[in-house]
C-alpha cells in the first residue's frame, strides 16, 4: 500500500516529546504493539521511555531525534548520537499499522547518512535485546553484524521496563559507514 504525504525526517523539538513518547510506547508495549512485529510485550511490561528521557535526548549535544510524519501525524522516529568515531542508533519506532511499508528502512538509511556525511562516523552501532531474533535478523539484512559484545539488562530500573523473564541481555551490532581505502 502506498504511503502518501511523507515528510522524511526533521529533527524533533521539545513540543514533539508527548507524541514521541506515545509512538514509542505504542510500538513496543501493550495491545497496540501487538499489531506490529516490533512489540516487546512478551519480554517486558511497563514503559519503554518517558518524557524526561526523550527531552534529554533532544537537548543533548551531538544527539538528534529524527521524525517521519504522515499527513501531519508522527509515523516513525529514531534517536542518533555521535559517540567518538561511531554513531549510535536507538529509540527506533514505527506506528504498528504502518510497519512493513518501508518507513523504517528509509529512516534507518537517513540516520546512517547523517552519521556518515555530517559526523564523519566510521560505523553505526546499536544494542538490541538478545531475545529479539527477528529484529536482529532485520538489522542483519541491512548490513549490521553482531560484534560479540553484550551488555546487562538494567534489572531493577523500571524506567527501562519491567522484565517478564530473568535472562534478558543486550547484544551489540555495528555497520561500517565509511568506505575503506585500499
* Structure class: alpha+beta
**Mean of the pLDDT scores?**
86
The CATH level-2 architecture is identified as 3-Layer(aba) Sandwich
What is the name of the CATH topology?
Aminopeptidase
CATH H-tier superfamily: Gcn5-related N-acetyltransferase (GNAT)
Helix content: 25-40%
The succession of helices and strands, N to C, reads: EHHEHEEEHEHEEE
Q: In order across it, which strands form the biggest sheet?
A: 1-3-4-5-6-9-7
Find the count of extended strands (DSSP E, 2+ residues): 9
**What separation lies between the terminal Cα atoms?**
43 Å
Whole-number radius of gyration? 16 Å
Can you characterise this structure?
The chain is α+β, with helices and mostly antiparallel strands. It has a single domain, classed as Gcn5-related N-acetyltransferase (GNAT) (Aminopeptidase, 3-Layer(aba) Sandwich). 27% of the residues lie in helices and 34% in strands. It has five helices and nine strands, in the order βααβαβββαβαβββ. It has helices at 17-28, 30-33, 51-59, 103-118, 133-141; strands at residues 6-11, 44-45, 63-70, 73-83, 86-94, 123-129, 145-152, 162-163, 169-176. The protein has a seven-stranded mixed sheet, with helices on both faces. A two-stranded antiparallel sheet has the order 2-8. Strand 3 and strand 4 form a beta hairpin. The protein starts with 5 loop residues before the first strand and ends in a 6-residue tail after the last strand. Residues 1-5 have low confidence and may be disordered. Pfam families: Acetyltransf_1 (PF00583). Keywords: Acyltransferase, Transferase. One of its GO terms (molecular function) is acyltransferase activity, transferring groups other than amino-acyl groups. It comes from Dyella solisilvae. InterPro entries: Acyl_CoA_acyltransferase, Bact_Acetyltransf, GNAT_dom.
Amino acid at each position: 500500500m502506498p504511503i502518501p504525504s511523507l515528510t522524511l525526517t526533521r529533527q524533533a523539538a521539545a513540543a514533539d516529546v508527548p507524541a514521541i513518547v506515545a509512538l514509542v510506547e505504542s510500538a513496543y508495549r501493550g495491545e497496540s504493539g501487538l499489531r506490529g512485529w516490533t512489540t516487546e510485550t512478551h519480554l517486558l511490561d511497563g514503559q519503554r521511555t518517558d518524557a524526561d528521557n526523550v527531552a534529554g535526548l533532544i537537548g543533548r549535544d551531538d544527539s538528534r531525534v529524527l521524525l517521519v510524519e504522515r499527513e501531519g501525524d508522527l509515523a516513525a522516529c529514531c534517536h542518533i548520537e555521535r559517540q567518538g568515531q561511531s554513531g549510535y542508533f536507538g529509540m527506533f519506532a514505527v506506528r504498528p499499522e504502518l510497519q512493513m511499508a518501508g518507513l523504517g528502512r528509509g529512516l534507518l538509511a537517513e540516520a546512517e547518512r547523517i552519521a556518515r556525511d555530517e559526523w564523519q562516523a566510521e560505523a553505526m552501532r546499536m544494542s538490541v535485546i538478545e531475545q529479539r531474533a527477528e529484529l536482529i535478523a532485520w538489522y542483519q539484512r541491512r548490513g549490521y553484524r553482531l560484534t560479540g559484545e553484550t551488555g546487562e539488562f538494567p534489572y531493577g530500573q523500571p524506567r527501562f521496563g519491567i522484565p517478564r523473564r530473568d535472562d534478558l541481555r543486550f547484544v551489540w551490532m555495528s555497520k561500517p559507514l565509511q568506505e575503506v581505502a585500499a
